[in-house]
Structures are given as structure tokens and as C-alpha cells.
Give the backbone structure.
Amino acid sequence: MSKLYYYVHTGHRVGLDKFRRSVSIIRSLGEDIDITLLCSDFRIAHVAKEFGIKNSVGIDVIRNIPYIAHHGDKLIFDSDEANPIMLDDMRKFFSTFIRLSDDKDDVKLDKEYLISPYIQKDGVCNALVIDDKYFEQTEKTVKISFFYGDDDYEKDLERNLSLLDGLEPVLQLGFYYFLDYEDELKKKFIDFFEFEDYDEMIQKTEILITASPQAALENLASGGKPIYIQRIDYPTHFEELFGKFGIPIIKNYNNKQLVLQIETINKQEYKKLEKSSNKITKFIKDNLNL
């Protein structure tokens, strides 16, 4: 009997955005679905149970997937690591292959199903993965929060703190921050949220300054006003999408542009997001014959 796996690219150089949406999808499929989460980082695989994931395995690199799965198994795949040849091999190896993509220039190929916010065609679920819990409207008791992301291996935030001059936001700490680095950052902010308080921060923050695309979307869903910081080491896949929903984008850590954006935030025309969890769940279950 074939088994179901979900591979997600995580790590101290790519953060947890894809992991967060894997949690949302796995939860939406229901507890009766036997699925194993494969993570490219052992640390998050170890604590995945705290997010409600029953089965998780750290596999280090993407090429180790065949050492866990078998020919004919089924896979949900969320990663930008694989080249076209590797993706073609996966489509042949797995009996069902469902891929998530953020790239507006991506195309759906034969022997795969796609979840994408950009593409509309047969075999594609045109949707954004945002957990339903973020759509619950919560009182905004925090004026401004800042979340650089779950990863900052090179300590880029510390070098670019001038971005926040004159703003005094509350800091959201990330998962892959080293202990001494966390302590250094805490001293430079008026207050902070621990990693475990991420959901609370998303839901209670009125204006979220963030370099995490997933956090920006979740804050918008909760009724917040996110401002996206485009990191140099992150792809620009979300530019067109954020433009559609009215999420402003700040580049080159430009403090003057950010301050002006906050001063005029009430003139920003944010668009409302729609829940897609039921649509995504149905798409996955139908194509996996669950």
C-alpha cells in the first residue's frame, strides 16, 4: 500500500515559511490522514510535534527522499531546491506528485498537480496557503511589530537596524537565531515576542514590518497592515502578488521610505484575503484519492 509524504524545505538559510504552510495543510487534511513530514532540517523535524505534526523525519538533503519513500508512494512537495531533471524524476517515482509554487513564471507539467497563487488551469489549485486561525479578527493591541524572519545566519538584521530608526517596534524573535544573537537583539528593541508567541504577534499587531512573505499574508488575513521588506537573499516571487493585495514593499533597507509608508499607512489600499483552506484540502484529497 502506498504511503503519503510531504517534503518541505526548511533551514537556517531559508526560514520556516514553507514549514508554516505545511502545518496548515497537514492539519486541514485531518487527523485520520496518515502523512509523514520530511524536513531538510533535523531541528525543526524534532520539534514538529509541538505544531501538531504527528510524524516528521529530518532527511538533511532532498536527494535522501528515495531512502525514506518508495516507488509508487505519494508526495506533496514544497521546495525550490530541485532542478528540472530532479523534478522529472520525482514525477516518475511517485504515483501522485503535488507541488507548491510561488513563482509567477512557473508552469504546470505533465504528471504533477500544482498549488499556485498565480496559475489558473486544469490540474492547478489557484490559492494561497493561509491557516484559518489567522482570519479570526483580534483586537490590535500592538501598534508596530518587526519580524525579520526565522533565519538570519549572517546576522544581516543587526547590520541593517538603521531601517527601523525612529519607529520603536516590538521584535518577533526567529527560530534559527543563535542564543547570543537573540540576547543582543533584545537589548535594541523596546519589547519582544518569543518564538513561541508568533501567532499572538501576527494576530495582535496592527502594522507588521516583515521580511517573511508568509507572515505578511497572515497578518493581512488577520486584519493587520503588513509592510514587506525585500531581502537581498530572498527571491522576488511575491512582488506581483503583494501588489495585487496592496502590501507595500521596501527595498534596500530604506528607512526614509519605510517611515513615510507608516506615516501614510491609512491611505494604503489593502485588499481582503479570502479563506482557501477548504479549496486546497479538497484539491489535495481529490487528487490523492483520500
User: Anything to note?
Assistant: The radius of gyration is 19 Å. The domain at 133-267 is CATH 3.40.50.2000 (Rossmann fold). Residues 76 and 288 are 10 Å apart (CA to CA). The chain has eleven helices and 13 strands.
